[in-house]
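User: Please predict structures.

Assistant: First:
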Amino acid sequence: MPASRNGLQYTLTKPDNADAMAPTLVFLHGLGSSQADWAFQLAHFQSRYPCLVVDLPSHGKSTIDPDFSLPRCTTAIKALFDETGVQHPVLVGASMGE
């Protein structure tokens, strides 16, 4: 279900049969993209694993951050992990152009 935290848009899914220690698959899009890039992967994995897809700051439906930087993205993702209880993330990403 789509949600928002401090302007950061995300979707967090948890299958009913997920093991409490199962890793959460965290899908991070590339520069200029959005969480929509991961629709096929989310459809495939969400029935077996907890999944988190995020619109990084200044991307997709998230709030524009005039001071956008990769370190600020890292801080936003870490805060989202803390708020949503993600303890065992497995990061899946696409290039941020570097």
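Second:
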Amino acid sequence: MTPQPPLLQIADLAVAFDGVQVVHGLDLRLDRGESVALVGESGSGKSVTALSILQLLSYPRASHPSGSILVEGREVIGAAEPAAAGSPWSSRSR
């Protein structure tokens, strides 16, 4: 039996707005059945991280100078239609 990829795997994620990097080198792994909480001070990048995972930042003003976001083994950074039916987050894609 082939092991399943993690539900979510973020590696070395960086987020920038207008060329100014606001999130640096984030790593996170979330397997099925696990829960995670992002905690931190105001302005530490919690919301930007969550919006990056969902690809809901104000692109192209926002960018990802480095890193990878894999959902069920599929890259979401740069996906053509992040909120469409083929998205890893869509219930129709399962």
